[in-house]
């Protein structure tokens, strides 16, 4: 499918003139957040790849981060105390529109669970759960000064600070924003194109959405791209009011979508941390909506996971787009949370793995 035109912008949600087009486009981008999570591997290797990005997007390189550094979202990896790196996203180039680039940042395998623990009452927790919760709050929510002012959650920002571009075997990989800018500049030059003619779209879900704000901030501020678009689903609070104002000031074209029943967009808790100003709230189907709110276009089973899954967000944004998203057996638990038949993707036979691993 061609890149949606017009691209969704936050102002679309201030009235009804372009809201349906924006919803369709956001649902289309949501599928890539799901694919990014499906790519996750539980060790230090690179993912094999995913055929669902073809035929539109060509793989360019991996994004990796040091998991144990600051409690990245993979709980089991952190508990084991591993200090290596793990896959956290990827960079792609559109094969038909070579000035268009896509960056996918995956969410955490345990996103809803860590959010539930963060907001739970401590006296109902015990043993390992209590110890883990204490560390999650401490490492994820401690305030860290952002280089340009304001405060961000230390754990979330630590993931971004440790993020690099390059495969597991890459020696001395560059920091994510620097590496992405250099890689795109090289690709553009090889085709007699300029960096200023390139547009980058960053897609993130859950913990990956918070990390995506930091990456988008640096790309918009320092890179010289024609446009940086950022589409976020189930975004935790990425920083305080000063940080979020600075984020808006970068000129990033951002839409951040939060479902009212999802736990993750409520943490880390206010008053220090706040949502992005570019947040659109999905209300339960049938609820009244105000400005920058939309009604869900599909019914989702009211569960911790169902309220949070990327494909469920796609269904709530646009049932028409969601039903055509390619899903395989590994997505069944997520798809089963969509209760509206008109929005439920069909599970395909076979595998999402490509014939040859990406490299």
Features:
359 residues, alpha/beta, nine-stranded mixed sheet, two-stranded antiparallel sheet, 11 helices, 11 strands, 31% helix, 18% strand
Topology:
Elements lengths: L18 H20 L18 E10 L8 H5 L5 E10 L5 E6 L5 H9 L7 H15 L1 E3 L5 E3 H8 L2 E2 L10 H15 L8 E7 L1 H16 L4 E7 L7 H9 L3 E7 L19 E5 L9 E3 L14 H8 L1 H4 L9 H4 L24
Describe this entry's structure for a reader.
The protein is of the alpha/beta class. The protein has a single domain, classed as Alpha/Beta hydrolase fold, catalytic domain (Rossmann fold, 3-Layer(aba) Sandwich). The protein has eleven helices and eleven strands. It has a nine-stranded mixed sheet with strand order 6-1-2-3-7-8-9-10-11, with helices on both faces. It has a two-stranded antiparallel sheet with strand order 4-5. It starts with 18 loop residues before the first helix and ends in a 24-residue tail after the last helix.
